[in-house]
Write a structure and sequence with these properties.
Elements: E1 4-9, H1 14-23, E2 29-35, H2 44-47, E3 59-60, E4 72-75, H3 82-91, E5 95-98, H4 108-115, H5 122-127, E6 129-130, H6 137-141, E7 145-147, H7 151-165, E8 174-180, H8 195-198, E9 203-204, H9 212-224, E10 231-237, E11 244-251, H10 258-268, E12 275-280, E13 295-302, E14 305-312, H11 316-330
Parallel strand pairs: 1-2, 1-4, 2-3, 4-5, 5-7, 6-7, 8-10, 12-13
Antiparallel strand pairs: 8-11, 9-10, 11-14, 13-14
Bound molecules: NADP nicotinamide-adenine-dinucleotide phosphate.
The site of NADP nicotinamide-adenine-dinucleotide phosphate has 31 residues, from helix 1 and helix 11.
């Protein structure tokens, strides 16, 4: 079988290096070009000694990358980069998976408001598919551009979907209390991310509003065809490297029993390789998914409130792992090719 040639723009950051870690063991992939401006010309294994020596690529400046050999280009770049490359690449028949937010929100005005920049290719946003693998599989198969979901939105939407789809909760009173490890912010210099600040510390941020709120609402509306979803989302920074943990509070419309609720979640995800519904009254932990493409979900019923717990590894199911899962679906590979990873324990 011919290998699929792929390139990575932004290969020197956290999600870029995670793509490399996972793609190295993918049976159907050849990696062509890997970009970095800061590490231009350096051996990739010099910057990432954890990678095997068989990776002989050197980083290349994105301005010099041609992507000629590649059928698919991953963008592991900040917001507002992929949209500047997209038209040219699509016109050459290439496919794109953007790990940033350029194609995640269809409402361009809303996107420009939250991201503070003018969108470079609104027409391409229309044709992009939101890559929440479990819930959008048919659309992903035929996509030319995948908007890979944010890490928080992945854990949160997988947790909320069964309830909204079955129309059993008040869709206006959803409260999401979510936490992320520090690698979620990327490999950048920022006072708040210094060890002396972040270690042994804990805080909420973006309490007045976060970009993932419109992403969660718009895409859940699209996937469930419900119109009035309102989710109050408050993120927090955890003093650990990897992990997303969402504790979600919803109001049940009817007083459904635990057995019925249990059945709704178990039947929604019984065919899913990567979403593990653990059952009722179970506690997922970040270490149960660390390093893997798994999402672990459980539920607790307290009177007419339901609490849904959901955890993923932000760099795997929340970014690079889901991007590879989407690639597998697009190119008709086994969905877990290259992703057969057990979490690191302990
Ligand atoms: N970290 C996560 O857990 C996570 C999860 C889901 C989604 N995401 C999203 O994924 C994207 C990448 O995140 P990350 O955490 O990997 O960020 P990162 O660690 O900061 O890496 C960013 C990468 O982009 C490159 N880059 C920066 N500016 C560029 C430009 N103008 N043109 C071309 N390349 C540029 C950087 O290399 P050079 O500066 O050397 O070129 C670096 O390789 C972001 O949009 C982020 O929101 C991240």
């Amino acid at each position: 079988m011919n290998k699929l040639h792929v390139s990575i723009v932004g290969g020197s950051g956290y999600t870029g290096s995670e793509l490399l870690r996972l793609l190295v063991n993918h049976p159907h992939i050849e990696i062509d070009q890997i970009t970095s401006r800061q590490d231009d010309g350096k051996n990739v294994t010099e910057i990432f000694p954890f990678l095997p020596k068989k990776i002989t690529n050197k980083f290349i400046h994105p301005d010099n990358a041609t992507f000629d050999q590649s059928e698919l280009i991953f963008f592991a770049t900040p917001n507002g980069i992929a949209m500047n490359f997209a038209e040219k690449l699509i016109s050459k028949g290439k496919k794109i998976i953007d790990l940033a937010a350029d194609f995640r929100i269809k409402n361009i005005q809303l996107w420009e408001q939250w991201y503070g920049m003018k969108h470079a290719c609104p027409k391409l946003v229309e044709m992009a598919v939101y890559g929440l693998s479990e819930l959008n599989k048919n659309e992903i198969k035929n996509a030319k551009i995948i908007a890979n979901p944010g890490c928080y939105p992945t854990a949160i939407q997988l947790a909320l979907y069964p309830l909204i789809n079955k129309k059993i909760i008040n869709e206006q009173t959803i409260i999401i209390d979510a936490k992320s490890g520090i690698s979620g912010a990327g490999k950048k210099i920022d006072d708040n991310l210094l060890m002396a600040e972040a270690y042994d510390n804990f805080n909420a941020y973006s309490v007045q509003g976060h970009r993932h709120e419109p992403e969660i609402e718009e895409n859940l509306k699209e996937i469930t065809k419900r119109k009035n979803i309102k989710a109050l989302f408050i993120p927090h920074l955890l003093p650990m490297v990897r992990g997303i943990y969402a504790t979600i509070y919803v109001d049940l419309i009817e007083d459904l029993g635990e057995t019925e609720l249990d059945l709704i979640f178990s039947t929604t995800y019984d065919q899913s390789i990567f979403v593990d519904y653990m059952g009722i009254n179970k506690i997922p932990k970040t270490k149960m998914v660390r390093g893997s493409n798994q999402c672990k979900i459980s539920i607790f019923k307290r009177d007419k409130k339901l609490i849904v717990l959901s955890t993923i590894d932000n760099l795997v199911k929340g970014a690079a792992g889901q991007a590879i899962q989407n690639m597998n679906i697009m190119f008709d590979y086994q969905e877990d090719a290259g992703l057969n990873l057990l979490p690191l324990a302990p």
